[in-house]
Write a structure and sequence with these properties.
With 237 residues, the chain is mostly beta strands. The strands form five sheets. The chain has a four-stranded antiparallel beta sheet with strand order 3-4-5-6, with no helix packed on it. The chain has a four-stranded antiparallel beta sheet with strand order 7-8-9-10, with no helix packed on it. The chain starts with a strand and ends in a 6-residue tail after the last strand.
Length: 237
Amino acid sequence: AQGFYRIDVQAGDLRPLLVNEAGQTAGTAEWPVWSSDAKTMFYRRADPRRRGQSLVVRDVDSGRERELYSRDLPAAGELPTTVVTSPTVQSFRNFGYAGASRLAISPDGQQLAFVWTEQDGAGQGPSSAVLTVIPTANGGEPRELVRVDALERIFPPAWMPDGDLLFGRGRVEGQGPRFELWKASTAGGEPERLGLSMEGSVLYGLSVHPNGRRVAFTAGHFGSLETWVLNNLLPAG
C-alpha cells in the first residue's frame, strides 16, 4: 500500500489520510504539500489507465476532493510515475519526473506552484520543463513563469514571504551536473539570477524561512546528498 499519513508526534498515533492498496487501478498519489493551517492537502494523482495526471485539493477532515488541474501525457514516453535512477545509468540524463512534480503552496494558500516536465516523443528524457503557478480557488487558470529546454532542468521551487518564487535551474548532463538559484515574480517580468551556483550537484529540496532571510536546501548527486543553510542570501528591503 502507498499513501499519506498524519502522525501525532506527542502521542505517537498514526492516522491514514489517503491510501492506495496494492493492485488498485486508480493510480498513485504523490508530492503532497499542506496549507499553513494543515487543513488542506494538495497532491499529484497519476492515472496509468489514460496516462493522465491531476493536481488534487483534499480537505483533510472530510476527505472531500476537487480537481485543480488535469492534463494527459503523450502516448509515447515513460510512465508518469517513474523516476529514472537505475545504477546502470551513470549520468543524470533522465533525472526527473514526467508531468507535474515539485509542488509548493504559497504562504497565503492562494497559489500552487509546480514544475511540468514534458517527455520527448521517444521517451528518452525531458524535452522541456515549465515553472507554473495556478490559483487554488475554483476556475483559476495556470500561468507559465519560466520555461527551459531539454538541456536544462527546473529544480524544486519555494515561496518567499513577499510572493516571489525561488527555484533551482541547471543541467544534469553534458559537462556535469550543476544548478543555480533563481527568483521569479508571480507578477511578471524576467526571472532573476541570485548569484549562487554549485558544480557537481543537483537541487533536491528547497525551503525558505518565514522571515525570508534564510534558505535551506538539499543538494548532491546519486549516492551522495548534503543539506545546507544559507544566511543573509537576499538583500534587506
